[in-house]
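Consider the tokenized backbone below.
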């Protein structure tokens, strides 16, 4: 069996493999046998990627090594390697930003963006990379404002960035097309949102003019229950999806049987005279219908406690 050079990060490039005495036909054989997995531009993974996100992360790390400090992982790719969620980003394309020059480049599988004045690259386990705050703003400019908000909420929730770090990050892109709406939306970034679905649900409630507070503790006969959002003007709870829910402080949550626990949890909340509205992904694209449902629940809740 052909012995591959040792690599701690599961990445090898064609130059290293050639220096180890392997030829093109050897590489083709190793790919066919599943011992090498092509990524981009002569780079291979020595293990099979575990889905599109993992492939993207491996490719981003490979390209960071390929550019040898001249460019850093950026935009949605920086989020992926940090383990943060993306929303509509194209994971078939890795994004990098140049450290110094203003040139750009697009190749199959990756895109290199010009340097950003005032931006200082960070040294990470994946190699040179744009700081997370700046990458959040970048992904909003490239992929849409909701991508930025989803990532910002997740980064705040995990304490990977602070609100104070997001403000100067936005300032780096002053004058960029779309930065105004992006800045406005990022003002709502909130680390209490624990998933992209909760981020989008909260955004939908704001768009509907429904004031609410996220992650509220509700006292019930079965103990304290944490809800995704509680309307400020009525005992009406809004929950995203609802297939799995956890009780207790976020770091200490214990998963239980989803269906049984969810039903008991909802019953306990309703017993305290709260209305409960479940929101699923499809409803977030029809705010008119969603607004009718939530306002009807709010009216029932007000009437019940009157």
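A designed sequence for it:
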């Amino acid at each position: 069996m052909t012995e591959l050079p040792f690599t701690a990060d599961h990445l090898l490039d064609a130059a290293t493999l050639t220096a180890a005495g392997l030829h093109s036909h050897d590489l083709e054989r190793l790919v066919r046998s599943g011992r090498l997995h092509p990524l981009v531009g002569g780079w291979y993974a020595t293990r099979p990627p575990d889905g599109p996100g993992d492939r993207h992360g491996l490719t981003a790390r490979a390209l960071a090594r390929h550019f040898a400090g001249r460019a850093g992982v950026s935009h949605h790719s920086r989020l992926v390697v940090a383990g943060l969620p993306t929303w509509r980003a194209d994971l078939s394309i890795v994004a990098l930003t140049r450290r110094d020059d203003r040139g750009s480049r697009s190749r199959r599988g990756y895109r290199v963006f010009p340097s950003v004045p005032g931006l200082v690259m960070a040294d990470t386990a994946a190699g040179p990379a744009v700081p997370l705050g700046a990458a959040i703003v970048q992904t909003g400019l490239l992929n849409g404002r909701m991508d930025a908000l989803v990532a910002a909420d997740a980064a705040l929730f995990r304490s990977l960035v602070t609100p104070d770090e997001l403000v100067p990050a936005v300032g780096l892109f002053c004058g960029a097309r779309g930065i105004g709406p992006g800045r406005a939306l990022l003002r709502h970034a909130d680390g209490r949102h624990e998933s992209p679905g909760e981020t989008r649900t909260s955004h939908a409630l704001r768009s509907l003019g429904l004031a609410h507070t996220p992650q509220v503790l509700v006292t019930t006969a079965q103990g304290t229950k944490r809800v995704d959002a509680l309307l400020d003007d009525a005992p009406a709870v809004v929950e995203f999806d609802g297939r799995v829910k956890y009780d207790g402080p976020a770091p200490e949550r214990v998963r239980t049987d989803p269906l049984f626990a969810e039903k008991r949890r909802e019953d306990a909340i309703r017993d305290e005279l709260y209305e409960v509205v479940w929101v699923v992904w499809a409803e977030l694209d029809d705010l008119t219908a969603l607004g009718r449902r939530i306002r009807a629940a709010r009216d029932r809740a007000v009437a019940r406690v009157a």
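Confidence is low (pLDDT under 50) at residues 244-256.
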